[in-house]
Design goal:
Its EC number is 2.1.1.321. Keywords: Methyltransferase, Repeat, S-adenosyl-L-methionine, Transferase. It catalyses: L-arginyl-[protein] + S-adenosyl-L-methionine = N(omega)-methyl-L-arginyl-[protein] + S-adenosyl-L-homocysteine + H(+). With 682 residues, the protein is of the alpha+beta class. It is built from 15 helices and 36 strands. β1 and β2 form a beta hairpin. The radius of gyration is 28 Å and the shape is globular. 46% of the residues are buried.
């Protein structure tokens, strides 16, 4: 047996539940991006070209070609190598289910006599007559990269391979990698890292100095940078080549720093670094696979989409004013697994740079995720909540707020509520909100209670009944849109403490659905069949078995602002939850059919929540604008939406009798929604 964390919407907690020993494997496979990699034609073709060229160079030297493939996955690159003429290939894959799939794929394609799959970490592989490898390899093929290039341990793996597994002067595919970066000013992106002043009815709520001075969390922010419009940032410098790694030579995993110097091309506030990398598959750099966003490519229309490698956003420890033509030095530093950027003194040599990995000292960056920072900084969203509170608050209002790390209770005080209480179960969140209160001389304006809703008593409320129960709702443990229904359970838990005429904000939540055609996201779930002429269907079968274990019957969260899609039907409200009433004891069932209104390829269904704050104010966690005539969708950038993928894409002809049938059941005892969707044909 194994214990797995799972969000529990009835308690707002992460429960540890007992699963079978295979559960972790199945979940890892079901949620993996293996299919996305195999659908990445640009990647596959470039690897194949690089491998052919490397094999030809070794053969031209009259040597026997022995290939080492680290991170072999399905064995695709190993099969490319032997097809290109390699005499033998050692395929190393540490993940057991994947190694088993690779053995099956290699056998099905007839390469079992020339490819040996080794189910170990590469640092555990031995060489010698009795070892895993009989001899050192003279071609090193790897796919050990993530969005940050080195985040999957590429440096220590290469370091060990050169020391113990490959020959001196070996060929490497890829041959080198190069990191690029651009310094920009971007209010949109900076709002993901720093709380901005917030205007509330003439009051200017200031962020704590500790947050402003904090360098933030060190983890990379990986996004589909092609979906960030160039209009949302101002380049302060050129795209800089920061450093390169030659994989055909010994690689060090030791920490290092590199500096690019340039004259600022415009004045502004240096806030954010946009970064990506490319890999040269050959020594001459004729075969290049680039991760550059579409707007940085010479031919944006032919930009290859991929989700397993994206682009990176790094937030500087502090923003700095830069003048046009000013000499500027941008430094990138790395340890063995991560990168970070800083602005340094332009007179300082890069060999003398000492750059420490940033870490959060204010705790706000640990309480609020980057999308949450963006949400709290969303002026339009703030105005919706302030307007709603303004409509319902009275001078004698006693308010209770139930949300994680929320500013709503502060808004309620500034709008004139008599008493404001806030439930914050996280000690760290309590400290962050307390910092905000102290910074704005509001120390006693909100009473923060570190207890759970079911523990709340009249004594905690100083004998007051609750006249306004409010929530965004936002809870850090929520993974899917309807997990925020935890607020409904909180409302039920405090029912006896509510005033008979209490106002609940939001008063209701509605689940919406829409059938969609994804521009690219479908690739992460689509079967591959064959890839570059090789049969990889055992991989498809393995993923399908893992999906059938549980995942195929569940939706999964995705930030759809990064993944364009087209609506094939009108959005439909399918289930409404009345927060003015307690959670019912019996399940809520809804069935129906939504007619398709557009032709296309239906890949699945998107689900999201909308919350009714007042009779005329609604906030959407999904669509932020009506779907246009072409079906284009604009999604809330601060929340993830739920996506239910169909097993295979379904062609919609436009016949008005075609429809999306749905069956949804909200089960109160688990706080989750069971769902099934299908397409009905005439």
């Amino acid at each position: 047996k194994t214990f797995c964390g799972r969000a529990n919407p009835t308690t707002g907690a992460l429960d540890w539940v007992e699963e079978s020993e295979d559960y972790d494997y199945h979940q890892e496979i079901a949620r993996s991006c293996y299919a996305d990699m195999l659908h990445d034609k640009d990647r596959n073709e470039k690897y194949y070209q690089g491998i052919r060229a490397a094999v030809s160079r070794v053969k031209a030297r009259g040597e026997r070609v022995v290939v080492l493939d680290i991170g072999a996955g399905t064995g695709l690159l190993s099969m490319m190598a032997v097809t290109a003429g390699a005499d033998f290939c050692y395929a190393i894959e540490v993940f057991k289910p994947m190694a088993q799939a690779a053995v099956c794929i290699v056998e099905r394609n007839g390469f079992s006599d020339r490819i040996k799959v080794i189910n170990k970490h590469s640092t555990e592989v031995t060489v010698g007559p009795d070892g895993d490898m009989q001899e050192r390899a003279n071609i090193l093929v790897t796919e050990l990269f993530d969005t940050e290039l080195i985040g999957e341990g590429a440096l220590p793996s290469y370091e060990h391979a050169h020391m113990h597994l490959v020959q001196v002067g070996c060929e490497a595919v890829p041959h080198r990698a190069t990191i690029y970066a651009q310094l920009v000013e971007s209010d949109m992106l900076w709002k993901w890292s720093q709380i901005q002043p917030i205007e509330v009815d003439g009051h200017r709520l200031q962020p704590p100095p500790s947050v402003i001075k904090c360098a933030g969390v060190p983890s990379v922010c990986d996004i589909q940078l092609s979906q960030v419009s160039p209009r949302s940032f101002t380049p302060l410098g050129p795209i800089c080549t920061m450093f390169s790694l030659d994989f055909s030579k010994p690689v060090s995993s030791a920490a290092g720093s590199y500096t690019a110097q340039f004259k600022a091309q415009s004045s502004g506030r240096a806030q954010v670094v946009l970064s990506w990398w490319d890999i040269d598959m050959d020594p001459d750099g004729n075969i290049v696979c680039t991760m550059a966003p579409s707007w940085a490519c010479s031919k944006p229309q032919s930009f290859p989409w991929r989700d397993h490698w994206m682009q990176s956003v790094y937030f500087l420890p502090a923003e700095k004013n830069v003048a046009e033509e000013e000499e500027t030095s941008l430094t990138v530093s790395h340890d063995d697994y991560s990168l970070w950027y800083s602005l340094t003194d332009s007179q300082q040599s890069d060999t003398k740079v000492t750059s420490f990995r940033p870490c959060c000292t204010c705790q706000a960056h640990l309480v609020w995720t980057r999308p949450r920072f963006g949400e709290l900084n969303d002026e339009q969203r703030t105005e919706s909540y302030v307007s709603a509170l303004r409509n319902i608050l009275k001078p004698d209002s006693v308010c209770l707020s139930v949300s994680d790390g929320s500013l709503l209770p502060i808004f309620a005080h500034l709008l004139g509520a008599r008493k404001v209480f806030s439930l914050e179960s996280s000690g760290m969140a309590r400290r962050v909100i307390d910092q905000v209160l102290q910074t704005n001389s509001l120390k006693h304006a909100v009473q923060i209670l570190g207890i759970r809703p079911e523990q709340l008593s009249l004594n905690d409320l100083e004998g007051n009944q609750i006249s306004v129960l409010m929530s965004e709702p936002y809870f850090s443990t929520s993974l899917l849109p309807w997990h925020s229904l935890f607020f409904w359970y909180c409302r039920t838990a405090v029912a006896q403490l509510l005033h008979p005429n209490a106002t609940i904000l939001p008063s209701a939540g509605t689940l919406y659905i829409v059938a969609v055609e994804f521009q690219d996201l479908w690739r992460i779930r689509a079967p591959c069949g064959t890839c570059e002429g090789f049969d990889v269907s055992p991989m498809d079968e393995m993923i399908r078995r893992s999906l059938d274990f549980r995942e195929s019957w569940e939706a999964e969260p995705h930030p759809l602002w990064e993944y364009p899609c087209r609506a094939l039907a009108k959005p439909r409200p399918v289930m409404t939850f009345d927060f003015t009433q307690c959670v019912p004891e019996q399940p809520i069932n809804k069935q129906g059919t939504v007619p398709f209104t557009r032709r296309g390829c239906c890949h699945g269904v998107v689900l999201w929540m909308e919350y009714q704050l007042t009779d005329d104010i609604t906030v959407s966690m999904g669509l932020t604008k009506p779907v246009n005539e072409e079906g284009a969708c604009e999604w809330n950038p601060h929340r993830k939406q739920g996506v239910f993928f169909f097993r295979s894409a379904l062609e919609i002809s436009g016949d008005e009798r075609e429809g999306l049938s749905y069956s949804l059941t909200f089960e109160p005892h688990i706080g989750d929604i069971k769902m099934d969707f299908s397409v009905t044909n005439p």
